[in-house]
Task: structure prediction
Amino acid sequence: MEYSRILENKNRITSTTPDHRSYTETAGNFSIRFVFSGNEVCSIGRRQLSIHSDSFIILNKGTQFTSSSDPRLPVNVFSIEFDDSFLKDFNTNFFKGKNAVLLDADHSAYQLRETIYPFKGDLKLNVSRLKKYIENGAADDVLINDYLQKCLLNYYRVYNEEIFQKAKKLNFLHSNTRIEILRRLNLAKEYLYANYNKNINLESLANHACLSVNHLLRTFKLAYNQSPHQFLIQIRLQRAQLLLLKTEYPVYEIVNMVGFKCTSSFIRLFRNRYQTTPLKYRNVIA
Result:
């Protein structure tokens, strides 16, 4: 379903189904961008932010990006654009006491907001309810704004976990150094999300992140509690999970689509992560 809903306070909620052609636009305000089906890639300079239904991205006001989508699946993009005044009032009212830690502790961390985040938990529940509420024809701006406030609060909690807490894990003395290393690790993370179905070697990944291989391995493990290879396997299994749920591709095709070379090793890894085989997962869950 396509629509663009502008509230009285100028917050905008948009649902689109792109036709797989690339287009370029500029974020008018601070925005959160989700994909409820298919895959969208938002390119910002040389960076490619690949979004599926288990992830989302942030766009700062004024960011220019180019959107493209995977033609193998229908795509539904759901975005929330927050008016400056609403955002300012929210920050003033909500970030007091213990919630203050959710704001950028250092303004240099601001640049880290535009990256890929996991779409799960309270944020996913709240946004899914908001989307359903609007698509059922509801027109109560007060209730919608309540959803938006909860959405922002849940986003900042995810931000705290994915940016602030990960930066703290890096054992460097100066905060600016931690922020810079995490910025480079984000480049590596984004590269893995965008190229998970290709052959990726450590040298190319390290070059993309502007780190040495040893530095990448050490700091990536500190921030994400796993190696880049383990992180890549996790992404591939998540993408296979989505394809099993949303498509009728046979398992051997999905194996190739997500970058695995061996069906038997894929089945073993899938069973270890989800406690069931791919076929049982498709038949029972779907």
